[in-house]
Amino acid sequence: RRRERWGYRVVGTLAVSGDADVSAAERSSLAVLGTVPDASAVVAEHRVDRVIVVSPIALRELIEDLVLAEEADVRVDVVPELYEVFIGQVDSIVADIPLMEITRSSVAPWYSTLKVIADTVFALVLVVVMSPLLLGAALAILFTMGRPILYVQERTGKDMRPFRVFKFRTMVRDAESSTGPVLASDDDARITAVGRVLRRFRIDELPQLANILTGSMSFVGPRPERPFFVARYSKEIPGYPERFKVKPGVTGLAQVSGGYATTPERKLKYDLIYMYHQNLTMDVEIVIETLRVVLTGRGAR
Fold it and tell me: 72 — phi, psi (to 5°)?
């Protein structure tokens, strides 16, 4: 009856591991649906929409698996320790037990709509205002490196959909003809003298205004990655595909918070921080920090 009064239908419980834990769970009045390693599969099979973890520190991997599992679209709450209450926010109370929600719902529709409108308006304004700089960069590339002026490359965007990203060419022609796909570094010998200036002040990114106007990118979001590296990182880094649930951006929290050579794992953490906490204030702060990077030539990308 108390469960009905709380407004929930309890499907069952999971034992941590081992026969002893299963036996202890079976002595409760709840059905034992499996052990902790089975959590994602149990959630999908029984169509569970909420999971409550009573020992979040001991079951950290379970929480990460549930939050990032593609087959389990579920809300995850934890019973917080005292220090977690100090640094977090209690989202709900069941009976007399406080709970903190780990997963968050998607951003409000008004925010998404406003962001699309702002992206379009500011992109059009920048195309007009930056047209002399765009022309100057194009001529500098043409006279020093020849054609092509633009570098067009396939990237992976929102929902893993491929699209073509546009940049001013900053490397020698056919830079990867002998090496295959490789990541650029600060002292990359393939970057030309003009290209180094364009990269330092991020002028090479300006053609991506076209990507914003066509809707494949936003001003702020996780940087779009190449399919080759997406496939590689998806196998090596837990939770990497999560970053493709939002539209990629020309700049992002990872670019203004880390250096050019920041590891993919660290960039992913910044991307997820942005995804789960994005708001207009954060967007404005990232844009302002990006402008500071551009004006000072500091090399975070």
Answer: -120, 95
Residue 266 contacts residue 258 (beta carbons within 8 Å):
yes
Contact by Cβ (8 Å): 51, 24:
no
Do 233 and 264 contact (CB within 8 A), yes or no?
A: yes
Cα separation, 61 vs 297, whole angstroms: 40
Is 94 buried (19+), middle (13-18) or exposed (0-12) by CB count in 10 A? middle
The phi and psi torsions of 10 (rounded to 5 degrees) equal -80, 120
From the CB of residue 191, how many other CB atoms can be counted at a distance below 10 Å?
20
CA distance 165 to 256: 20
Which of 70-74, 283-287, 292-296 has the lowest average pLDDT? 70-74
Lowest mean pLDDT among 168-177, 190-199, 236-245, 281-290: 168-177
Question: H or E element: which one contains 97?
Answer: strand 97-101
pLDDT by residue (tens digit) across 54-70? 776 556 667 777 766 65
The DSSP code for 245 is G
**Other Cβ atoms within 10 Å of 111 Cβ, number:** 14
Judging by beta carbons within 10 Å of its beta carbon (0-12, 13-18, 19+), is residue 208 exposed, middle or buried?
buried
Are 37 and 61 within 8 A, CB to CB? no
Q: Is 301 exposed, middle or buried (0-12, 13-18, 19+ CB in 10 A)?
A: buried
Tokens 């020992």: give the residue.
55
Is the pTM higher than 0.90? The answer reads no
Strands 249-251 and 218-220: parallel
> Of the candidates 230, 286, 227, 224, which has an alpha carbon nearest to the alpha carbon of residue 253?
286
CA–CA dist 83, 246 (Å, integer): 32
Tokens of 21: 């834990």
